[in-house]
Amino acid sequence: MPVGTRVPWLYYYLRDIIPKVEVELDRLTELARLIEDRDLRAQALSSLKNKAFHCYGGSVLALLAPRSRWQDLIALITAFQTISDYLDNLCDRVGITDQQAFYRLHESMFAAAAPGEKLVDYYDLYGGMREAGYLSYLVLRCQSIIASLPGLQHVKPRVTQLIQHYTNLQALKHIPPEQRCFQLENYIHHQVENPLGFEWWEMAAATGSTLGMFALWSTAACPDCDQLTADRVFEAYFPWICGLHILLDYMIDQEEDIREGDLNFVSFYLHPEARWKALHKFTGQAMEQATNLPQPGLHTLVVTGLLAMYLSDAKVKAQGYSGSARELLQSAGSGNMALYHLCRAVRHMKKM
Predict the structure, then answer these.
(1) How far apart, in whole angstroms, are the C-alpha atoms of residue 81 and residue 52?
(2) Which residues of 325-338 are buried (b: 16+ CB within 10 A; e: fewer)?
(3) Which end of the chain, N or C, is more open, meaning fewer C-beta atoms within 10 Å of its C-beta?
(4) Which pLDDT tens digit goes with each residue over 6-29?
(5) What is the pLDDT of residues 44-83, one digit of tens each?
(6) What is the pLDDT of residues 321-336, one digit of tens each?
(7) What is the pLDDT of residues 139-160, one digit of tens each?
(8) What pLDDT is stored for residue 2 in this prediction?
(9) Percentage of the chain exceeding pLDDT 70
């Protein structure tokens, strides 16, 4: 896909999307500062500060929607991604390893995607910590926007499926280390369809991305959304684009995850060469899938944007991956080095 077909989308993203994401994040930061519990407040603010790039990146998919709905989709993607990042912190950084507590927290994600679903106490198994308004605000914000999507009925079952996979991944990967690999592999083998014969950790990686949900909601914002289009978007994102997303994330986090004792899916490849070979496979298939979707220029921008964003991280050079990263970027087509340098500049400005 020639880079020229992606340029208008990149222009709109830089001009229209990023500033609106910043406004949304500022609003949520002010709300997070009001959380009564000190530990919950710290984790909410940490997720907004240190994982803001998830919101910036995911919000490119708002461009799939009609221009009149961009603001709504930006608000939806930012709110839902903030739920995801906040809950990831609560599962990962507070010292709680109760699987049922993790499932209860993630009921908020199901509720956020289901307009009209009543709120419950998502913290009731979470070590006595409580807050009165932050998580419930995020859930209700998502519900109100999702309810207005004209094609919601075409994407809702697929979104629910992705949330189910995501929730199970989050609950299982944060249980005690001696249990998590066995239980997660068992879950992937028995409850996640794998007709293409991926390794279990590759399917697990694909379940860890929210991009498929955002692509489906943005597609549902289009008045002409139909079931065929929704299914094609789902099949392109899961497992290919979502898998690429999370494998890149884990690839650059290997040293950090070793230090923290966190599960890292690329560690299951026997050799570094196998890891990069897998990334080339996912990149090639993700690009092919993207070019066959409606608005292919935007979907290919998502794929190349993932490559540029993750491979521009300073951790790539620090781990000696610069040469392999350059080869992967170039494999996705011409012009991607320019996108890579743009991401490096943005990282410098935003100190990401």
Answers:
(1) 9
(2) beebbeebbebbee
(3) C
(4) 668 999 999 999 999 999 999 999
(5) 999 999 999 999 999 999 999 999 999 999 999 999 999 9
(6) 999 999 999 998 877 8
(7) 999 999 999 999 999 999 999 9
(8) 40
(9) 97
Burial of 108-127, coded b for 16+ CB within 10 Å and e otherwise, reads bbebbbbbeeeeeebbebbe
Residue type, 333: G
The CB density around residue 153, as the number of other CB atoms within 10 Å, is 12
Q: Which residues contact 23 (CB under 8 A, 6 or more apart)?
A: none
Q: What 3-state class would DSSP assign to 308?
A: helix
**Which residue matches tokens 């880079």?**
3
Cis-peptide, bond into residue 294, ω within 30° of zero: no
Domain 3-350 fold is Farnesyl Diphosphate Synthase (1.10.600)
Query: Burial of 68 by CB count in 10 Å (0-12 exposed, 13-18 middle, 19+ buried)?
Result: exposed
What Cα–Cα distance (Å) separates residue 130 from each residue in 29, 104, 206, 291?
18, 13, 32, 46
Q: What are phi and psi of 98, to 5 degrees?
A: -80, 110
CA distances in angstroms from 172 to 20, 97, 167, 177, 193, listed in the order given: 34, 10, 9, 10, 18
Sequence length of the chain is 352
Q: Which of 59, 346, 29 is nearest to 214 (CA)?
A: 59
Domain chopping of the chain, boundaries? 3-350
- Among 151, 137, 131, residue whose Cα is nearest residue 221: 151
Distance CA 343, CA 338 (A): 9
